[in-house]
Amino acid sequence: WKAHANARGVALVGDLPIFVAHDSVDCWTRPDLYWLDAAGLPTVVAGVPPDDLGPEGQRWGNPLYRWDRMAAEGYAWWTARVRRAMSHADVFRIDHFLGFNAYWEIPAESPTARIGRWVPGPGRALFETISRALGPLPIIAEDLGLITPAVRALRDGCGFPGMKILQFAFGGDGSHEFLPHNYTPDVVVYTGTHDNDTARGWWDNAPAHERALCATYLNCGDDDVHLAMIRAASNSVARMAVFPLQDVLGLSSPHRMNLPGTLGGSNWAWRFACTDLPADTAAALARISAAAGRAPARS
After folding, report:
1. 287 backbone dihedrals φ, ψ, rounded to 5°
2. H or E segment to which residue 202 belongs
3. Which of 42, 163, 200, 247 has the most CB atoms in a 10 Å sphere around its CB?
4. Distances, alpha carbon 130 to alpha carbons 17, 84, 101, 157, 272, in Å
5. Which whole number is the average pLDDT over 268-274?
6. pTM to 2 decimal places
7. What is the pLDDT of residues 134-149, one digit of tens each?
C-alpha cells in the first residue's frame, strides 16, 4: 500500500509503539531480550506514574526490554524493527519517546503504576546505531508528558521533530508553548491525537476560561472551532500539520477514537464510510493547505 500511495503523490505517516505485547511474536521468539522469569512471565512491566491523567498512573503491562543485552548485539533487534517500519510508512511517530531517556519500571505484581522507579533508557546511542545502518531516520518523537531537559536534548540531538497539540494550548496564557505563535519549525502540530477528544468534543467540554481563550485566539465559536483549529495548525510554522478525520468532519465526543487508561467500550471502534464524507471535503482541505503554503494552489 505504501508503493500504491507514493505513486500517487501521497506519503504515509505511521506509528510505532515503544513497547511490544507480552503475547507478541517479538517477545516469544527472543525472550532473552526482555525481563522475564523462568516461566516466561514478566518480572517488571511498563507504564507511567501518577499524573494529572490519573492518581493510579497507567499500568500498561508490557514487558520491558533488557537494554543491556540489546546493546551487546548492536541494537540489531531495534534496527530490524525500524527498517520494517520504514517499509510501511514514509514517516512514523514513536510513542512514549521519553522512555528512551528513562522509563517507569513497575513490579509485575503491582496492580497499579503507583509503585515503580525510573530506570535509564538507551539514549542517543540507540538511534545513532540505527542511523548508521539505515541512514537518516524519518521519526516523529512523541514528546508529550514529563519532558525534562534530558528528553529535549535527546530529541534535538537526534534531529527528530516533537509534537504540539492544539487542544492543550488554551489552559494558560499567550506564552503557552502549544499556541501556534510560539512554535519553531521543528515540530509536528496536531489539532488532537487519537488519545484526545475530537475538537468539537473538546470545545463542548472545555472549562469556560479555556474556551474563552480559544474563541479569542482562533476567532471561532460553536459551529467552526474544528475548522479554526485546522487553519491554525496549517498556518503555523510547524514542519507538518495533522488533523484526525473526526475534526475534518466536525464530529463530537461520541466519535472519539480512544480514552487513555481504559479498555474496551468504544475504544478504537469508530469507523467511517466514503459516503460519510461531504463532496467538498477534499476541496476545502486543499484550499486551506494551499493558503498555508502546504500544497500547490489550484484554480
Report:
1. -65, -45
2. helix 199-205
3. 247
4. 17, 12, 16, 14, 37
5. 95
6. 0.92
7. 999 999 999 998 789 9
